[in-house]
Structure formats: structure tokens, C-alpha cells
Amino acid sequence: MNEEIIELNEEKLLRLKLLSERLDDSIKIPGTNQKIGIDAIVGIIPILGDFIGVIFSTYIMYSGIKMGVSSKIVKKMATNIAIEFVIGSIPIIGDIFDALWKANKRNVELIEEATIENQENYRLNYLIMTSLIVLILGLILVILGSLS
After folding, report:
1. What is the pLDDT of residues 55-102, one digit of tens each?
2. Do 43 and 50 meet the contact criterion of CB atoms below 8 Å apart?
């Protein structure tokens, strides 16, 4: 992963955060601190609403895959989506659950954590590689110096 990929992933992550906010937290319920999003509103439509929600959620998961998250994270994201879809399909109870579970927000947070970890690993790997190159060049100079 190079710096250009890190920047692209940061841009993608910002877009995913905005999308998940619109899907899960864009509308404040008057008189409460609770927010719902388009996903919860569309989910009121029997069957079709839940499928539309799954399409958006799957897009977020697909974006995470393209950004290089591990299969462990993908499994967690798929589980979040499945839970929201199965329970969300139950009339009334599912709609309330959908408004509270917020699978999209959870999944974007998983992607963000994985992206930060990947960036830290990249920088550490780069530092190790650079140190190794400097060490090898130093050894070559010492060997060449001892030959003269």
C-alpha cells in the first residue's frame, strides 16, 4: 500500500461515512436524541424496503473489500447486514430494530478501523524496509572500506 492508495482510501472512507450517515442517522426524531436514516424509512415498505437496504449495505461492504479489509472484517460486516435484514423483515419490530441497529454505521466503523490498522502496518513496514536497506548499504560500505 503506498501513499496514493492511502489517500484514495481516505477519500472513499469519507464518502462511505457520508452514505452511512444518510442511511442511518440523517433525521433526528423530535423530542429525543435518537436519529434514524433513509434505511429505516425505506425499510417500512414490506419486503422491497429491506431489499433496498441490503443493496446499500452490500455496497458499503463491497467498498470495504476493494479497500483491502481482511476476510475477518468482511465476515463481521456480512453478519451485521444479515442480522439487520432478518430481524428487519419482521413487521413493526423489525422496523424499530432497523432504526436502532444501524448496520451501515457499524460496517463503516469496521472499515475505518481496518484502514487505520493497514496504514499503520504500511508505515511500519516501510520503516523496517528502509532500515534494512540502510543497514545493507552500510555493511557494503564497511566491506568495501576494509578491502582497500
Report:
1. 999 999 999 998 888 889 999 999 999 999 999 989 999 999 989 999
2. yes
